[in-house]
Write a structure and sequence with these properties.
binds ligand C2E, globular, 289 residues, binds magnesium ion, Diguanylate cyclase (GGDEF)-like protein
Length: 289
């Protein structure tokens, strides 16, 4: 009987792998078409200064719209794009769109645009060269660009990535570690890493009032970051209680659905320039004196 079950389990395992493989293959081909047709879009999720709730920047997030109006989740297609290497051309597309929009944000001269990078890109191309040539093409100042990487950069052969990150910083860009706390990085690395910002993962943010260990971990991360002269941006804030907790701990930036969801550029632009919409609103109807 045990043997029978073992055999079944094995069969189920291979079947589900086959289905997954087929699905991944299908998505890969579909993605190739979408890259060539330039049908990827970028949404922007603002983040705010913890001490003023004012928007200080936004994160560019890839969106893949479908014919029926739905979107395929980045959690799904980014993973496949990283496996197939399609993340390299895809990232260039995303970067071009993000930079083109950033160039339109003229009045907020301190506004920062954050772009996610994949470790794959560091293995395949010279990121600093790509960034500086795109920044020149779209006329965006390098100091208004921030690049987010996950902790996996510290796990793999790190030296080349470190050098590249240091170069990006030398030309004026900021570096953030994304989803901080979820990886397996050695804390000893943090001191050597050329980074400016740690983004606390929403897994911690969202469990501070359900899991006491999360509070302890967040406090430790924040005090360590401050001791090493790095800023904190907290991801995934959904409640005012969560926001207050991190404000009290002196975090610099807050990001999450409580403040803003990812949005098309037009919406971000309206948020940053409320004067445009106010002007038209205040004339209809005319105010009484
Ligand atoms: P990420 O970089 O950690 O981005 C944050 C994700 O959390 C986004 O999901 C965002 O919509 C979501 N989020 C933000 N605030 C909240 C909140 O309060 N509650 C909840 N439940 N979720 C929140 P999204 O857009 O689905 O992206 C998922 C991941 O895909 C990103 O995680 C990033 O790792 C990757 N990704 C997205 N766009 C790109 C890209 O252009 N390049 C690369 N390399 N990766 C990307
Ligand atoms: Mg990110
Ligand atoms: Mg993140
Ligand atoms: Mg995250």
């Amino acid at each position: 009987k045990a043997k029978e079950r073992g055999g079944n389990t094995f069969q189920l395992f291979t079947e589900s792998m086959g289905v997954k493989y087929e699905h991944a293959l299908h998505l890969r081909n579909k993605m190739q078409t979408a890259i060539e047709a330039d049908s990827f879009e970028v949404y922007f999720q603002p983040y705010v200064a913890a001490n003023s709730n004012k928007i200080i920047g936004a994160e560019a997030l890839a969106r893949w719209p479908q014919a029926d109006g739905s979107f395929i989740s980045p959690a799904e297609f980014i993973a496949i794009a990283e496996q197939t290497g399609q993340i390299v051309p895809l990232s260039t597309l995303i970067m071009r769109k993000a930079f083109a929009q950033l160039a339109k944000i003229q009045h907020n001269s301190d506004f920062v645009m954050s772009v996610n990078l994949s470790v794959k890109q560091f293995q395949r191309e010279n990121i600093t060269q790509l960034v500086s040539s795109l920044a020149t093409e779209f006329n965006v100042p390098l100091h208004r660009l921030q690049f987010e990487l996950t902790e996996s950069v510290m796990v793999d052969d790190a030296q080349q990535v470190f050098t590249e990150l240091a170069e990006l910083r030398t030309i004026g860009c900021q570096i953030a570690i994304d989803d901080f706390g979820t990886g397996f990085s050695s804390l000893a690395y943090l001191n050597k890493l050329p980074v400016d910002v740690l983004k606390i993962d929403r897994e911690f943010t969202q469990s501070i009032y359900t899991d006491p260990a999360s509070q302890t971990i967040c406090k430790a991360i924040i005090s360590m970051a401050h001791g090493l002269n790095k800023h904190i941006i907290v991801e995934g804030i959904e409640t005012t209680e969560q926001a207050d907790f991190f404000k009290r701990l002196g975090c610099m930036g807050l990001q999450g659905f409580l403040f803003y969801k990812p949005m098309p550029f037009e919406q971000l632009d309206n948020l940053l320039n409320p004067s445009d919409s106010k002007a038209s609103v205040s004339s209809f109807p005319p105010e009484k004196e």
